[in-house]
Design a protein that fits this description.
By secondary structure, this protein is α+β, with helices and mostly antiparallel strands. Helix content is 54%, strand content 9%. Helix 3 packs antiparallel against helix 6. The protein binds glutathione (GSH). Glutathione binds next to helix 1 and helix 2.
C-alpha cells in the first residue's frame, strides 16, 4: 500500500495543502489506493527519515519520495498506465505549469487566505504557522489578508493565461486530464478547503473547468472536507 503524509488541520479530515492535493489527484488518476496520513506542521520529526521537512511525502515499499513534482515523475515511471504527462514533451510543458503555479498562483492565493488558514490549522501548529508566515511576508497575517475584496480583481487578472488556455477546451491536458490539470486544480483545492472567500470568479472557463475536475475520479475533489 502506498502511503502519503498529508497536511491536516485541527480537524484531521481537513486536508488543505496545495502540494498534497497535486499528489492525491495524481494517485487518483492512476487508480492507486493510498493511505493518506494526517500530518501537522510541527511534526517534522515524523518525516525526518526522508531528510527534509515538507509534505507531501510518499512511501511506496522501500521507496521514499518528497516534493509533489518528484512524486508525479516517480508515479509515472513506476506505474506507466494512465499516464500523467503523455511523454517527455508533455512532462516539459507540465514543468512550466508547475513553476507558474508555485511562483504566481500559490503566492497570489496566499495573500487572499493566509489569515483564514490560521483558524483551521491544528492548535499546536498555530504559533509556528503565524511566526513562520509573518517572517516570510514581513507583516502580520491580518495585514497580508487585509483588502482582499478589492485586491482579488488583480489576482484574477493574473489567471488570464489559464482562462485563455481553457476557453473552449475541456482540460489543460487536451482531450483528457493530465498532471497539468492536477497541478492547478490541486492548488485551487487549498482555498476551497480552508476559506469561504471566492478566489476564482464564480463563472467563466476557469470555474467551469474546476467543476469538471471536482467531478473526476468519482467526485474525489468534491468530496473533500471544507470549512
Ligand atoms: N515544492 C514542494 C513544496 C511542499 C511544501 O511547501 N509543503 C508545505 C505544506 S503546503 C509544507 O510541508 N510546509 C512545512 C512548513 O511550512 O514547515 C512540493 O511541491 O511538494
Amino acid at each position: 500500500m502506498i502511503s502519503l503524509f498529508d497536511l491536516a488541520g485541527a480537524d484531521p479530515a481537513l486536508r488543505f495543502s496545495p502540494y498534497c492535493w497535486r499528489s492525491k489527484f495524481a494517485l487518483a488518476h492512476k487508480g492507486l489506493a493510498v493511505d493518506a496520513q494526517p500530518w501537522r506542521f510541527t511534526e517534522a520529526d515524523r518525516i525526518a527519515f526522508s531528510g527534509q521537512a515538507r509534505v507531501p511525502l510518499l512511501q511506496d515499499g522501500n521507496t521514499v519520495v518528497s516534493d509533489s513534482w518528484s512524486i508525479a515523475v516517480y508515479l509515472d515511471r513506476a506505474y506507466p498506465d494512465a499516464p500523467l504527462f503523455g511523454g517527455p514533451h508533455g512532462q516539459a510543458h507540465a514543468r512550466f505549469i508547475n513553476a507558474w503555479a508555485d511562483s504566481v498562483l500559490v503566492p497570489g492565493i496566499a495573500t487572499l487566505i493566509v489569515r483564514d488558514l490560521l483558524d483551521v490549522v491544528a492548535e499546536k501548529d498555530r504559533a509556528y504557522f503565524r511566526s513562520s508566515r509573518e517572517a516570510r511576508f514581513g507583516r502580520s497575517l491580518e495585514d497580508v489578508q487585509a483588502g482582499r475584496e478589492t485586491r482579488v480583481a488583480d489576482f484574477r487578472a493574473t489567471l488570464t493565461p489559464l482562462r485563455v488556455a481553457l476557453q473552449g477546451r475541456p482540460w489543460l491536458g487536451g482531450a483528457e486530464p493530465s498532471y497539468a490539470d492536477h497541478i492547478v486544480a490541486g492548488t485551487l483545492m487549498w482555498p476551497r478547503c480552508v476559506s469561504s472567500f471566492a478566489t476564482i470568479a464564480p463563472d467563466g472557463p476557469i470555474s467551469e473547468w474546476f467543476d469538471r475536475v471536482l467531478d473526476l475520479y468519482d467526485g474525489f475533489g468534491r468530496a473533500a472536507t471544507t470549512v
